[in-house]
Amino acid sequence: MGALDALSDESYTGANRCWPCTVLNLGIVGLIALFLRARERSMASLWVAVVGVAVVYLRGYLVPYTPEFAPRLVAASPVPDEWFHGEPAHGETSQEGVTRQENESLADDVEIDGETVFRELSAAGVIEVEGEQLFLTAAVDTAWHERMDELADRSLDSLSTALQASLEQVDNAEPYAREDTEWVVLGSEHKQLLPRPVVVAELAAYEVLGERLDDERLRVAGAEAFRMFLDRCPVCGSELVESSSVSCCGGHLGPRQNPDETLVCPTCEQRLYTFELSDS
Ligand SMILES: [Zn+2]
């Protein structure tokens, strides 16, 4: 089964399989097969059906970027969300576990509430409010983007070294790559994986904030907040798309909680920011 194992993608199959993606993709395979049959191309039709189903089985989905749009289709459809995601068993998916996994950030261990972060950032002239919207002030925004561009060109090794050198709280940082995805692993005992785009965005923000804030914890928390102002992926330059955390894949909170809005890079398939909506 070596060849099959190599083909299969664990992130979207097995326990991680996302049913919206699977159902949608099987439907598309079926439609193409029917279309070919109707045009009397039975061999092609059979081939599409067999290969299509096999790919969906092995990889979780066939149509590129399904994980980005399937959850939105499901969210918009009248079909109850529970049909796709069973209620988590008691104590199985703790809310803390989920947010941790979704919000990979240097600021994971920093506990400062969002309001304090924004008050301090605005007092330091880093952000400003216009109408109902928040913006980074022009000088900060320019400095941040210039720094991100420089960091984006660095190797993963060099990024890890820079991260360890800049941040007091990071005692160890190592590069880690698997298939097309790159991370920096932080810490020696309690390990944490930070995806490359997050490292670039937060390290650049942290350095820019260094000239404006003295408090180390605020710099780290502020660096995470900067990610909500991204409109392009700091690594590949793709325009970010707004998505929802109703799933794909494995990030489901539970039927009665509102899905959070997220910013996702469709090319890196990486979530860059999660706007946490309260689930009142
Ligand atoms: Zn990207």
Describe what you observe in this structure:
Residues 5-84, 119-215 form the DUF8054 domain. The chain crosses the membrane at residues 17-36, 43-62. Keywords: Membrane, Transmembrane, Transmembrane helix. Residues 84-105 are annotated as: Disordered. The chain is an alpha+beta fold. It has two domains: 2-63; 95-229, no CATH class. The protein is built from ten helices and eight strands. The strands form three sheets. A three-stranded antiparallel sheet has the order 3-4-5. The protein has a three-stranded antiparallel sheet with strand order 6-7-8. Strand 1 and strand 2 form a beta hairpin. Helix 2 runs antiparallel to helix 3 and helix 7 (138-152) crosses helix 9 (196-210). The longest helix has 20 residues, at 19-38. It is elongated. Residues 85-102 and 250-254 have low confidence and may be disordered. The protein binds zinc ion. Residues 197, 233, 235-236, 238, 265, 267-268 line the site of zinc ion.
Looking at this protein, list some descriptive labels.
280 residues; alpha+beta; 2 domains; 3-stranded antiparallel β-sheet; 10 helices; 8 strands; binds zinc ion; DUF8054_N; transmembrane helix; transmembrane
Topology, element by element:
Elements: H1 2-7, H2 19-38, H3 42-59, H4 66-76, H5 95-102, H6 114-123, E1 127-130, E2 133-136, H7 138-152, H8 156-166, E3 173-178, E4 181-186, E5 192-195, H9 196-210, H10 216-226, E6 241-244, E7 261-265, E8 270-275
Antiparallel strand pairs: 1-2, 3-4, 4-5, 6-7, 7-8
Bound molecules: zinc ion.
Care to give the gist of this entry?
This protein is of the alpha+beta class and 280 residues long.
